[in-house]
Specification:
The chain is α+β, with helices and mostly antiparallel strands. The chain is 36% helix and 27% strand.
């Protein structure tokens, strides 16, 4: 049975989201990056970080501490 994934962080920069993804991984929280940017001419949109529902609160707490 698959678990639902929820957005816990977003930014305009892929690098910022990747840093958070790595930090969550180091704390045993699997995370995936969803890039919603349109790069036709100018990078428009956001990059999102998603975790499984079971890890949402823990991930948000870690991200808040990191910021």
């Amino acid at each position: 049975m698959s678990k639902k994934w929820e957005k816990v962080y977003s930014a305009l920069s892929l690098q910022q989201v990747e840093i958070m993804r790595i930090m969550l991984g180091q704390n045993d929280i699997p995370a995936v990056v969803v890039n919603k940017q349109d790069s036709m001419y100018v990078m428009l949109g956001e990059v999102e970080l998603h975790v499984q529902q079971d890890n949402v609160m823990r991930a948000i707490n870690l991200i808040e501490k990191a910021n």
